[in-house]
Write a structure and sequence with these properties.
Elements lengths: L8 H6 L4 E2 L4 H7 L12 H4 L1 H13 L4 E3 L7 H4 L11 H19 L2 E7 L2 H4 L4 H17 L4 E7 L2 H12 L5 E5 L12 H10 L4 E5 L4 H17 L5 E5 L30 H13 L4 E2 L7 H10 L1 H4 L20 H4 L4 H6 L10
Parallel strand pairs: 1-8, 2-3, 3-4, 4-5, 5-6, 6-7, 7-8
């Protein structure tokens, strides 16, 4: 498949193709010193656009078919929670610059460019549907003016707000994807996973699923329940899954948001690229065809997804130079040379190297 043909995301999914999305820009750029932990707002697109451009390029070279503009939390209410009146940020300006950067790289690399729609502080403050949808429209109007290839609403903790987002997104005529950052206990209004899935499917979104907060296995276990409920209702939608790249088994309702290492010591929780391989395979077997990552997923994790499914996709990532560790046979150390095989890495249980106390 030649991505430069610019067939729509729905054309590709309807044809049964596997689509790889990118990873977690917020945490990638925070680790590189450009985003502030806590607010997690995307002023880097104004201050250091080259940094954002290079991360887009890394994800594309690692196999991503879809690149999302970096405008996460890019609504006026989210952007200015921690700012004084004399240094307010403008959602429209940030979204515009995010679109310019991502479209430049998407054109260069033959990818689709997506406009991400963020959950709002206004919903959390219970300011009402009209105010919440006003925040959505500020973002979405920019994406529509830039003729983005699709809209992806993500990081929604409540299905009600997700439905409100879909209503506004559908006004554009663009393909609509919606994902929630919830686990097996359901949303934050105690709506079950099954009901959340049915409501998302009935909302009119083209692609639905889960993203962030939870590790791949928990995301997929949760999505499996959601998918079964939707299929029982006889509703046909495409499925997406973009989990967090952290181990979250002890995270409770909020996943990695509530573990002790959040937000400044998460490195010990990172999944390996081989965990990403296993996630890609299981997601495919569960019928998910829109596969990517969220917070914690670095470009090399996305490369692992694309490599694992290279036969199904008919291609390898552009910078894939050592499929299944084969390049290790050229390492100078014979011990490492012996690890030049998939089985060694698939069966390895990594440790963090710390002494027991």
């Amino acid at each position: 498949m030649n991505l430069s043909e610019k067939r729509t995301i729905l054309d590709r999914l309807n044809a049964g193709e596997v689509i790889i999305c990118d990873g977690g820009y917020t945490h990638v750029l925070e680790r590189r010193g450009y985003v502030t932990a806590g607010p997690y707002t995307p002023e880097v697109v104004l201050e250091y656009p080259t940094a954002v451009r290079e991360i887009h390029r890394e994800f594309a070279l690692c196999g991503a078919d879809i690149l999302e503009a970096f405008s996460f939390n890019g609504t006026d209410d989210n952007l200015n929670k921690a700012r004084m009146a004399d240094n307010k940020l403008c959602a429209k300006e940030i979204c515009e610059d995010g679109c310019k950067i991502v479209q430049e790289v998407a054109k260069e690399q033959g990818c689709l460019a997506a406009g991400p729609v963020s959950s709002t502080d206004s919903y959390r403050k219970k300011l009402g549907k009209e105010k919440v949808q006003e925040e959505f429209r500020t973002q979405i109007a920019v994406y529509q003016s830039f003729r983005m290839d699709l809209l992806i609403a993500e990081f929604f903790m409540n299905v009600e707000e997700a439905e409100w987002a879909v209503e506004v997104m559908q006004e554009t005529g663009l393909p609509v994807a919606i994902s929630m950052c919830i686990g097996p206990l359901g949303d934050h209004n105690n709506i079950s996973i099954e009901e959340c899935g049915i409501r998302l499917a009935k909302s009119g979104a083209d692609i639905i699923g889960l993203n962030c907060r939870f590790e791949p296995d928990i995301c997929l276990n949760t999505l499996k329940r959601m998918k079964a409920a939707v299929e029982k209702e006889g509703i046909k939608v495409h499925w997406m899954c973009q989990p967090a790249g952290y181990r979250t088994a002890d995270g409770g309702r909020d996943g990695f948001a509530s573990i002790p290492e959040t937000a400044l010591a998460l490195e010990s929780r990172l999944i390996s690229r081989w965990d990403a391989h296993k996630f890609a395979r299981r997601a495919y077997e569960e019928g998910v065809r829109f596969i990517g990552g969220c917070c914690g997923f670095e470009p090399y994790h996305i490369r692992a997804l694309a490599e694992e499914l290279h036969e199904e996709r008919g291609r390898l990532p552009k910078n894939s130079r050592g499929l299944y560790a084969s390049s290790l046979k050229y390492h100078h150390n014979p011990i490492v040379q012996a690890r030049a095989n998939k089985e060694y890495w698939y069966n390895l249980i990594p440790t963090d190297g710390r002494k027991a106390t």
